[in-house]
Design a protein that fits this description.
The protein has 591 residues and is mainly alpha-helical. Among the domains are: 76 residues; 49 residues, no CATH class. 74% of the residues lie in helices and 0% in strands. The protein is built from 37 helices and no strands. Helix 5 packs antiparallel against helix 6. The protein starts with 5 loop residues before the first helix and ends with a helix.
Length: 591
């Protein structure tokens, strides 16, 4: 072995990043260590201990620690840090407790190790036992409680801390920011003795979490300095508020941009449905990473452009779990079974989102046996999983299984699971059970009310009282609500027309083709054929053969020959191959 100097040893030790390098360096250092003064041997041993901890060999770090003689104050602290880095808190605690002397740095090291391991109770117990504390001790515990969401305890520690540094102030500020408590964050920010860039960014993030656009705008433009994080946060805020033009102007005015800048702007366009500009940003990126590729793939899948997403996927230099999950979710939303299975089977691992996406695909394609088999294999389930399987049982008419799942297996019955059971009863014609389920629901949302409104309409029951009760409870109706009301009163023209016009005048809802179809059927059924024909020609949708067949069917009851011929002629013109107009016209003439 060649002779090396102490300085060479220090350089070698600090440059090691793998265990193989560490072992070679240890041998080289050992060749000269015995000839060195005691304090130099201890110094090099401490560095070797730190090296093994960094390279992932806690066992060799312990061997070095055990042979250090004498140890100095750094030896214990470095051993505790090595244990924390390698996930062995128990050994770190044992080393700490066996130490004959423990200084404040050692206490802070073991405190940090407990926090890193998520052992908050142990950290708190050690904090309470500390013979003395400094700003680091208080900041570590403050950070631990803040990260665990214990805001009250974090604030108590902050208030009682005898000394506060910028870390303490910023930690508390960030805690308020992450908890979406902008008012408290702003009050704390205003009370700070001085501000640095980190604190400015923290209060800017707090305003973003609370969607305080004006506050965010004001904070951003009075910041004495900004870094890339500041710019990215403000671009994201504009994107959340759908102010994409402002986000782009900000992007264009950035003094410098990095990969995150381009990806943030790309995501802003994608999340606001502007795929053209998203692709323009993507194509203009000087470089791309997996995040930017995935953002573009997700943008395509979200808009249902699966062929474009697949084409982009084939260009990617590498794919990861997120890429495949985004594609799987896109295929699931479209109900594409074979494509979903292909992606799912190719995934190296699965998370809950991928399991749920595949489960949903099976259900949407009516593959209920496959859905149940997959459901039983899932290592974990959430409310989406349970509700999807509940819906599958209901759709296949197996309400006994749906009820058993709901009663015995779903412990946390959220609105989605209640709505799935209610829809099951409604769709399978169990009116009394649907009403009972609705009455027992702890909370009802628009989906719940719409399910019962629909089942009333299908069973020919008056649902107007139910509709009014929904309004009294403060649930605003949507298009589906009005479809059920219009369908439930198809023989009352005045009532139907009143609700049809109130969609726009009272609720600012634009009637869809379905609502136009409902009111058209009411007009025809009540004998107002001319008005029905005028509505067909004036509605903001292209008429299809079903619209004219609706008029033609009503002519059978009203013996209107001229209207029946006009309606049949229009239906033939739209779909010459459909035999329904011939049949209906013939029956009309027979009558």
């Amino acid at each position: 072995m060649w002779a090396i100097s102490v300085l060479d040893c220090v350089g070698l030790i600090r440059s090691c990043s793998t265990l193989a390098q560490a072992l070679e360096t240890d041998a080289a250092v050992g060749s000269i260590q015995e000839r060195l003064p005691t304090h130099t041997r201890t110094y090099l041993s401490n560095l070797l201990l730190q090296m093994y901890g960094r390279c992932g060999s806690l066992d060799r770090a312990r061997r070095v620690f055990d042979r250090i003689d004498p140890r100095d104050g750094f030896s214990l602290n470095l051993m505790i840090t090595a244990c924390a880095q390698n996930g062995d808190l128990d050994q770190g605690l044992a080393v700490f407790r066996e130490a004959p002397e423990r200084d404040l740095v050692a206490w802070n090291s073991i405190l940090s190790a407990c926090v890193m391991a998520g052992e908050l109770d142990t950290a708190q117990a050690l904090f309470d036992q500390m013979p003395q504390r400094d700003a680091i001790s208080w900041s570590v515990m403050l950070l631990a409680h803040a990260q665990s969401g214990h805001l009250e305890e974090a604030k108590r520690l902050f208030d009682f801390a005898p000394c506060r540094d910028m870390v303490s102030w910023t930690t508390m500020l960030s805690a308020y920011s992450k908890s979406s408590n902008f008012e408290q964050a702003k009050m704390l920010f205003d009370a700070m003795p001085l501000w640095d860039l980190v604190s400015w960014n923290a209060v800017l993030s707090a305003s973003a979490h609370n969607e305080h656009l004006e506050d965010s705008y004001s904070i951003f433009y009075v910041m004495p300095e900004r870094d890339l994080f500041s710019w990215h946060t403000m671009i994201a805020i504009f994107s959340q508020q759908r102010c994409v033009d402002k986000a782009k102007r900000l992007f264009d005015s950035m003094p410098a941009r990095d990969l995150v800048s381009f990806t943030t702007m790309l995501t802003a366009y994608a999340e606001n449905g502007d795929l053209v500009n998203a692709k323009t940003i993507f194509d203009s990126m000087p470089q791309r990473n997996l995040v930017s590729w995935n953002a573009m793939v997700a943008a395509y899948t979200h808009k249902g452009l699966l062929e474009d997403a697949g084409g982009l996927l084939r260009q990617m230099p590498a794919v990861d779990f997120f890429t495949l999950t985004a594609l799987l979710v896109g295929y699931a939303a479209k109900g594409k079974l074979e494509e979903s299975k292909c992606v799912f089977d190719s995934m190296p691992d699965f998370d809950l989102a991928s399991w749920n996406a595949m489960l949903l695909t099976y259900v949407r394609n009516g593959c209920y046996t496959d859905a149940e088999s997959l459901f039983n294999k899932m290592p974990e389930k959430n409310s989406i999983s349970w509700s999807t399987m509940l819906f599958a049982h209901a759709q296949s008419g197996r309400m006994d299984r749906a009820k058993n799942l709901f009663d015995r297996e779903i412990s946390n019955k959220d609105p989605a699971s209640w709505n799935a059971l209610l829809a099951g009863y409604a769709n399978n014609g169990h009116l009394s059970l649907a009403k009972s389920c609705f009455g027992h629901m702890p909370q009802r949302d628009l989906v719940s009310w719409n399910s019962l409104l629909a089942v009333y309409a299908r069973n020919g029951l008056d649902n107007l009282g139910l509709f009014r009760a929904m309004l009294i409870e403060g649930i605003p109706p949507d298009e589906s609500s009005f479809t059920s009301v219009l369908s439930g009163h198809s023989s009352d023209l005045q009532l139907s027309w009143s609700h049809f016009t109130s969609m726009v005048s009272n609720f600012r809802l634009a009637p869809s083709k379905q609502q136009y179809g409902c009111i058209l059927a009411v007009l025809a059924r009540c004998g107002y054929f001319q008005q029905a024909e005028e509505l067909i020609r004036s509605m903001p949708f292209l008429a299809d053969s079903r619209d004219w067949l609706s008029v033609l069917g009503a002519c059978r009851q009203d013996h209107s020959a001229s209207a029946s011929f006009r309606a049949a002629g229009q239906a033939w013109r739209i779909d010459p191959h459909d035999s329904a107009p011939y049949v209906l016209l013939a029956t009309t003439q027979e009558v």
